[in-house]
C-alpha cells in the first residue's frame, strides 16, 4: 500500500462516523415532527435506508459513482464489491476503502432525506423498494456526475459537499413522491403538529454536529480547506436560525423552536455546496438569505397543494438550489480556484451560469426518475398505506408497534404480532376504561 497520511486518515475516519450519525439524527428530527402514531415508521425509513444502501454501495454503488468514467455518465463496474481496494491508497494519503466508506455515508443520508415528504402514509416494504431503485438509477450516477469524473464536475460546476448531489437530488425526489402518494387524510384542513419538539431539537443538534464531518470532511484532509469549511458551516447555520425566526416573528408574531431547528438545517443545507469557496462574511450572508427564503418557501405547499409532510422541498430542494446558485455571487477565487470569483467579487456571470446548469440538470433528472419509480410502485404493489391504517396509526399497521405504551397491564406491538397475549392482571373491582388518546 502506498504511504498513508495518518493525520488525513484519522480525520476522514472521524468524519465518516460523524456523517453516519447524521442519519439517526435525521430519524429523531423527522420522528419528532410527525404524529405520535407514525413516529416509528418515520424512524424506520431512515434505519432501513442505512441497511439497504450500505449493501448496495458495496455491491455496485461505489463503482458506479467513482469507477472509471464511461461517457461522463457513469462509472464502470471494475470496483464492484470493492474488489482490488484492500491494499490500495487514494490521493491525499488515505486508503481507498476509507474514501469509499466516507462516501457511503453520503449515499445513506441522501436517500433517508426523501422520507420526510411522505411521512404518515407510506408503506415500509414499498419504501425499501423505492430506496434500492432510486439509489441505483439516480444517486449513484449523479454522484458520478458531480464528484466521480462525470460531466457536471468536468463542466466546472462547483459543489464541495453535496448541494446538487445530495440536497437538490433528495428534494426533487421528495417532491415527486409527495405528488405520487397524494395528500394525507385531512390535510390541509387538519393541523398536523409535531408530537415531540424536544426530539426535533435533539435531532437537529445531532445533524448540526455531524455536518462538520459532512462539510469539513469533504476536504479529504485536516487542512486549510477543512478549517474554512468548518467555520463557514457554523456561521451559516447560525445566521439561518436568525433569518428563519425573524421571518416567523414578523409574519406570525412568535419565534418557534421548530422554526429555529428548521432554520439551522436550512443554513446547513445552503452552505454545503459552498463551504470551501466563501469567506466567513459571505457564509453569513448566505445563511441569512437561505434561512429567510426557506421559511417563506414552506408556504408553497399550501399554495400549490402538494403535501410535503415535513418540508423537505422547502428546506432541502430550495436550500440546495440557493446554496448552489449563491456560489455564483459569493465565491472568491483564492478559495474556489482561478477564474471562479463570484459576481459580488468582480467575477463575470459565467460561474453563475455553470451553477444553474448543474442545478437544473440534477433537479429535472431526479424528479422525473423518482416520479416514474414511485408511480410504478404505487400502481403495482401499492406505495401508500390505506386510509384506515393512516387514521389508526401507521406504526401499528406496518410494524405492530407503538412508540408510547400507555397500558400498564397489556402487552402490545410485537407481542401481539407474535401471538403472545399477556395475562390479565387481577382486579378487585371494575374500573373505568383509560383513554389512550394522545396528541397527534
Automatic annotation (TrEMBL):
The chain crosses the membrane at residues 12-32, 39-60, 97-119, 126-148, 160-182, 194-214, 226-246, 258-277, 283-300, 312-332, 352-377. Residues 10-404 form the Ammonium transporter AmtB-like domain. It is found in: Cell membrane. GO terms for cellular component: plasma membrane. Keywords: Ammonia transport, Cell membrane, Membrane, Transmembrane, Transmembrane helix, Transport. It is a multi-pass membrane protein. One of its GO terms (molecular function) is ammonium channel activity. Its main location: membrane. Pfam families: Ammonium_transp (PF00909). It comes from the Bacteria. InterPro entries: Ammonium/urea_transptr (IPR029020), Ammonium_transpt (IPR001905), Ammonium_transpt_CS (IPR018047), NH4_transpt_AmtB-like_dom (IPR024041). SUPFAM superfamilies: Ammonium transporter. Homotrimer. Belongs to the ammonia transporter channel (TC 1.A.11.2) family. Involved in the uptake of ammonium/ammonia (NH(4)(+)/NH(3)). This is Ammonium transporter. It comes from Micromonospora sonchi.
